[in-house]
Amino acid sequence: xxxxxxxxxxxxxxxxxxxxxxxxxxxxxxxxxxxxxxxxxxxxxxxxxxxxxxxxxxxxxxxxxxxxxxxxxxxxxxxxxxxxxxxxxxxxxxxxxxxxxxxxxxxxxxxxxxxxxxxxxxxxxxxxxxxxxxxxxxxxxxxxxxxxxxxxxxxxxxxxxxxxxxxxxxxxxxxxxxxxxxxxxxxxxxxxxxxxxxxxxxxxxxxxxxxxxxxxxxxxxxxxxxxxxxxxxxxxxxxxxxxxxxxxxxxxxxxxxxxxxxxxxxxxxxxxxxxxxxxxxxxxxxxxxxxxxxxxxxxxxxxxxxxxxxxxxxxxxxxxxxxxxxxxxxxxxxxxxxxxxxxxxxxxxxxxxxxxxxxxxxxxxxxxxxxxxxxxxxxxxxxxxxxxxxxxxxxxxxxxxxxxxxxxxxxxxxxxxxxxxxxxxxxxxxxxxxxxxxxxxxxxxxxxxxxxxxxxxxxxxxxxxxxxxxxxxxxxxxxxxxxx
Length: 484
Fold this sequence. Notes:
CATH class of the largest domain: Alpha Beta
GO molecular function: FAD binding; oxidoreductase activity
InterPro entries: FAD-bd_PCMH (IPR016166), FAD-bd_PCMH-like_sf (IPR036318), FAD-bd_PCMH_sub2 (IPR016169), FAD-linked_Oxidoreductase (IPR050416), Oxid_FAD_bind_N (IPR006094)
Number of domains: 3
Largest sheet: 7 strands, antiparallel
Radius of gyration: 22 Å
Domain FAD-binding PCMH-type: 51-223
Protein name: FAD-binding protein
CATH topology of the largest domain: Vanillyl-alcohol Oxidase, Chain A, domain 3
Organism: Glarea lozoyensis (strain ATCC 20868 / MF5171)
Strand order of the largest sheet: 16-13-15-14-19-20-18
Number of strands: 20
Distance between the termini: 32 Å
């Protein structure tokens, strides 16, 4: 006990000293507990797990130079740990905030511009995707960004990134042509196919393991209106919906304009399931043939219409609750989907906590037309390829009020996903890949990239961060030397 208290006191003293050194250089951009900027930044997190952490100070960065100066200082102060905050994609505690350390708030780096022919959009790492779409829509172009406009550019891209345009251009990271990054030394550099091409590949799926990315340059996509909205069916039609989902996701010739999410919701208070689908089509076509089977199923609500991406992505703010994300990837099978729901229901139906819990299961196609881009534009490290065949990604999320139940919910969710994985494995449908942006801290998405990619990432870490600053001093996220 005394050692633990001593370690906490030492860490506090180091953090205080570290913040003081930052303040000497960056002045009022450093904020402390009790100050208005500190309070505002803390309130901006959308999960309780992140907002309850208390860094010794926040750096509210507004330029790449701010980040460069900060990393130069922090990396040379032993035991000064830090976190990197964008728009905070993941809900897990410590992924974008830290107790008793320094949190670098990147949201001030939100500038957006395009080059002369509008073929490349340069986006600050702290921007939200809604910011990007609002800027690009009037120009007749877009980028393969997040589907919820509130999601941040930085976290989604470094973890891979699923977009409505993924079947046309690959993962979001596949569309990056240049990263502006602050390395562990504090050096600000550009990384692309010609400058540091080895690191260029590592950053596409490598998370926060190599530096602080301050700007992304994306290939743009010509774009006007799209078909967007949702269709809600009675849960008694779930097997018909699963059949339609599987026929689309498993198609030999996947329609590249198709982006589909089927969502299942279970509310503990009513013990009721609901099912809905968002059949997006990235062309201005009202009734695309690919959705004929799905839309023939009787629906209770349909909001499908032609709209602009910036309009559709302006979703209501996410409820500030406790959240858990777990993920898995599987081969396409109606039978597996039916077994998944039965398995989830076996646990969820009788599971409850004070104030209740809502469970959400999202099913998203991962066809070979997406994974075929993994070897292009310098390649990525995700380990997905067309040889895997068509599959789908599952996100299990829980949201609840009662913080005292956090451990119980996490353990229950983990058991449910492990059970699903066992079912899928027995059917020969379990995939090794786990999507980083949907993974729980207990999962190992980097390990799922495959042995060769893990070793490659570790080599890049040793080359560009020889002191292991982003492995040992940035505890949040998925670390390279913790992967199997």
